[in-house]
Amino acid sequence: MNEGLMARKRIAGYSMLIPATVLFLLINAFPLVYGLVLSMTDMNYTKPRSGKFIGLENFRSLLGDSEFWSVMGFTIFYTVMVVLFSYALGLQLAVLLNKNIKFRGLFRAAALLPWVIPAVVAAENWRWLLNDQLGLINRTLMRIGVIHEPILFLADPDLARLSVILVAVWKSYPFMMVVLLAGLQSVDNEIYEAACIDGASRTRIFWHITMPMLKPISMICVTLMALWTFNTLSFDNIYLLTQGGPAGSTYVMSIQSYYIAIYRGKIGYASAISVMMMVIIALTVLIYWISQLAAARKTLSRVGEVNG
Amino acid sequence: MVREANWRSYTLLFVLLFIVLLPMINMIFTSLKTDAELYGGNGWFPAEPTLDNYRYVFRNTSFPRNVLNSLIISASVTLISMIAASLAGYALTRFRGRVFGLYKGFLYLIQMIPAVLMLMPLFIVIRKIGLYDHMASLIITHTAINLPVCIWMMKSFYDTIPYDIDESAFIDGCNHFKAFLLLLLPMSATGLASVGIMAFLYSWNEYMLASVFIRTNSLSTLSVGLSQFSQQFSVEWGAMMAASTIATIPALLFLVFVQKYIVQGLTAGAVKG
Amino acid sequence: MKRALLSVLLIVAMLTIAACGGNSGNSAGSGGSGEAGSANSGNIGGTGGTGGTGGSGGNGGNSGEVAELVFWDMMWGRSDSYPTTVQKLVEQFNNEHPNIHVTVQIIPWDNFYQQFLTAVTSGAAPDVSTGGFSQSIQYAAMDELIDLSSIVEEWKAEGFDANFPEGSLELHQYNGMQAGIPWIIDPRVITYRKDVFEQAGITELPSTWEEFFEAAEAIKSKTGMTPLVIPGDRDGAQVFLSMLFENGAGITDENGNPNFVTKGVEETLAYVQTLYEKGYIFKGTASYTDTDMDSKLLSGEAAMSYGALRTTVYNSGDPIAEHLGVLPSLKSKSDGTPRTLMWINPIVVYKQTKYPEESKIFVKWWVEHMLPLFTEGAANGYPAVKAMLQDEYFTREPYIEEAIRNAVPYGVPPVWPAKNLYTAWSIIEGENYLGMALQEVVTGNTNLAGIMEKYDKMIQQAFNETN
């Protein structure tokens, strides 16, 4: 292939990227740059003549604010928990719905419903279910005598944290389920049959055959879900359920940024929080890559040793 | 053996599904209750089920119009996403080079932007290009925000299609575009279905941008339309739940129809990719 | 394929229903409200204009041409009655003023703060709007409102200005300009069940905190019901504020300087703590919304509720509604003054309008003719114009009449004892400081002094940031 041909071929490729790129430049790129710039100013809506460039001052005050650290801590905790449990639930349902069950299609559609419900509806319905006096969960548990006093799902600061995680898991597991179901379906039946013939138990088959085969696809959906939860879902779910209460116990970074921007007009400072969110994600990805590289290097060196 | 379904599987499935569907059941029951029962009643089942709330939503409010708007917007977003994502995904698979590598990194970066950060700048952009209070504003923003994931999906889908197929088309005299249009696109029905459903659901449920970009009541989406049932310090519960149930139906239908394809689509894609 | 066909058929059916439902029955409510005067009914292509904002052809104030105004009104009443009533009233105005044409858009309460902020800061403000309580001060501080004093002057000449609650006009003044005109008032009331009081043997209505405790104890021991239910979310902040007023305390002093670490505040916190510890309010209060409050009162679990008067919820003919009454507002000690929180929301005109004079004409007319918004639109609250309260609509239920008699005269605005709204209010309300303080007490935090200082710090910071 000569240079001209390569260049011509490349142009075809570039031109195929055009529709997407136009949208990106228009919609995604500007806010990104704008947000980055804003985060380094003291721009405040309520003070018309603000907007001076102040460099990293916002970040310095942010890192020195103890409330920021506790909010960040909860945001990370929340993300990890949501990803973990939505994965577990999604996996369990995917395994079940991979089996030869009658009306499988209908069950699958039913299991996907939480994905479909608008967030505000989901939040309101969950709030009713979790209500201490009239909510179904408390009433049932009290009626069968498991508890004697209602559980304050949304009123107790610690329980509220668990409740928002619960609702987020409920909303997030369908995506995990769908992806994992796809992964399960790609596993050849023959491998399972061979293992059965060899006398392997179900548990062994699951952990030693199924799970490793699911690894690549699991990485993808876990990464995506972590990203989404951290960035957007943390806002939607929590804001609608508790608005960050009670007593600020379910504050996450996206809500904090929102409040500061909207109610105090300190859009510069709020942008700095958002930029910090991006930094955290970038750092996490970096750490992950480095660990992967280190693991790969170790494997390679071991291989090298073996091969002499 | 692994795929056998025994009574244990069925039981576990039913229990999980019941728990998972509780809020939905609650929603439907609430929508069937009268106002008196909503506030005074203690029961979970509607003692005297009524379709009043549904009638109210259909006849007395602008909500049906909102559902229609959402359908239009979500369908457009789905269509554009499918086109742009399949083109870009194909390009990123088949071509090597620094630009393409950087592009992948760029996609990653865009995904990391928190929604909160995007709101005000996006509003400025939308105003500048004159699309404030037009449905088009949501169509392009929803598409753009959702696109990175869609491109990822299509790319990994195309990764599984061996280059030989492209080459057979080249031998027959097609260029890249023709090969794409005539050969690969038809093959990617399942990948497109996955992209379609991701795009559709995102746009269907989106609230923040929809509430700010569109002002005219008759142009609003359903997620904004649902909020008309909230007054300053109270909520019309029966009506809101009836409206939510109505809002869930198209999406559910879409799911039933498409769920088979998503699974296939994702299979071909991400596992081997 | 059959499944696909079925799905398609169902979708088509839905679309048909949606299309029909959207056109009949509510062209006034939705189809009409947005489309007149703006060229954007669903066009996908941009026209380059900014459809939906104030002014059209860009010619300001020519006397020969029709002034196009955009009016953003909040969803003040039920979704079936309010939008149509507003539309009708606007049409009446348009008919009476051939050279002004007003288009109204109803803004939902969810997210309204953000919607207004985004619109105003990017030049997409409407001409006139109602809104939240602090709408006037918030946007006046950003220099985005025009002075409405001329309207007040005209009213003074007509004698109409005596209609407004005392101090309400002054409330919405900023740096000498009239930033907003008060038009709707909404007091916080203590609704009680007369039959339960009878059952508990309460013959005299409590008027102080001490008497309230006695009544609560009687209810608890003789009927087993929880005496009082209050919300614990943002609406709970209002109840707490109202209790502060009952005790003569507030967020600031008379000059609008933050003053939260006071004996008055501490006593109020202790009052709430007693209510919580003695079981006079529910243990789960911190998570309650207004809906929880309504359902607990109407289902017979609580004897009293404290919040907005829930007229849209208490249906007449409902067995419990027959027994509802409204307590006269409380005072904390017998030598105090009864007070309760009362919202007084403004209507404002934005500087971005191209037709300031016409906008003012509209505002003046609107406030003078707004009675149907309540009588037909079922707006939540009462008109700020005293003369309108004589209408028989406001005596249609005993408890509504009692609310007007027993609460409205004692109503004071949220910024009491300050006389003017201050800009820090948006932060204090928006970030829900009082609500959070209340939540701390009702989740068992007994360190009242600590709570007081924590939120005082936040309040101080809010004031620092807005100066």
Describe this structure in words.
The complex is a heterotrimer of chains A (about 300), B (about 270) and C (about 475). Chain A is about 80% helix and about 0% strand. Chain A has helices at about 5-40, 55-65, 65-100, 105-110, 115, 120-130, 135-145, 155-185, 190-195, 200-240, 255-265, 265-305. The two termini of chain A are about 40 Å apart. Chain B has about 270 residues and is an all-alpha fold. In chain B, about 75% of the residues lie in helices and about 0% in strands. Chain B has helices at about 5-30, 35-40, 50-60, 65-95, 100-110, 115-130, 135-160, 165-170, 175-185, 190-205, 210-215, 220-225, 235-270. Chain B is globular, with a radius of gyration of 23 Å. Chain C is an alpha/beta fold. Chain C has two domains: about 55-185 and about 345-395, Periplasmic binding protein-like II (D-Maltodextrin-Binding Protein, domain 2), CATH 3.40.190; about 185-340 and about 405-465, Periplasmic binding protein-like II (D-Maltodextrin-Binding Protein, domain 2, 3-Layer(aba) Sandwich), CATH 3.40.190.10. Chain C is built from 18 helices and twelve strands. In chain C, α3 (about 80-95) links the parallel β1 and β2 (about 100-105). Mean pLDDT of chain C is about 80; it is low at about 1-60. The interface between A and B is large, with 95 and 96 residues.
CA-atom Rg of chain A in angstroms? 25 Å
Structural class of chain A: mainly alpha
Report the CATH C-level class of the largest domain in chain B.
Answer: Mainly Alpha
Using only CA atoms, what is the Rg of chain B?
23 Å
Name the beta content range of chain A.
under 5%
Total of helices of chain A = 12
Which keywords apply here?
heterotrimer; A: about 300 residues; mainly alpha; MetI-like fold; C: alpha/beta; D-Maltodextrin-Binding Protein, domain 2; 2 domains; 10-stranded mixed sheet; about 15% strand; globular
